[in-house]
Amino acid sequence: MSFILVAMETEGFAIYDAMMQLRNEIHTVAVGAAIGQACLLLAAGTKGKRFMLPHSKALIQQPRVPSSGLLQASDVFIRAKEAIIQRDMLVELLATHTGNPVETVANVMKRPFYMDPIKAIEFGVVDKILWRGQEDIISSPEDWEKKPRN
């Protein structure tokens, strides 16, 4: 089942690509946990419109390779190469959206990097903690065409 590795990461990249095609603002909110690809999608929202609930967590981690039983050495090599390509792509995109250097993102990704909302703000994943009633996170339909996405 060599499609498993690709499927685990490519859905996240597919959603990311779709988000980048939109011209309007994208509001992102972490509810519970934003892990791996979800952390990228959270960071890829419009700057100033990326939120976390107070007790949520964000986690930057390397792509995972599920175990699939016994594999030939060539299959292991193919999966490892694909995982490294996806890791490097994830590092580049997270660096772009957080404003951190590629080296910093690659460094924190060596081990699971957990962030509470304060740490996520400091790292550039989100902009604000969403407290009850504090922010209006949904634009009115009249504003949909007024503010093109940067």
TrEMBL record:
Q: What Gene3D superfamilies does the record point to?
A: 2-enoyl-CoA Hydratase, Chain A, domain 1 (3.90.226.10)
Sorted alphabetically, which CDD domains does this protein's record hold? S14_ClpP_2 (cd07017)
Instruction: Write one Gene Ontology MF term.
Output: ATP-dependent peptidase activity
User: Which Pfam family, giving just one, matches this sequence?
Assistant: CLP_protease
Q: Which GO terms describe its cellular component?
A: endopeptidase Clp complex; plastid stroma
Question: Which GO biological process annotations does it have?
Answer: protein quality control for misfolded or incompletely synthesized proteins
Read off the InterPro entries from this record.
ClpP (IPR001907), ClpP/crotonase-like_dom_sf (IPR029045), ClpP/TepA (IPR023562)
* Family statement drawn from the similarity comment of this UniProt entry: Belongs to the peptidase S14 family.
Record protein name field? ATP-dependent Clp protease proteolytic subunit
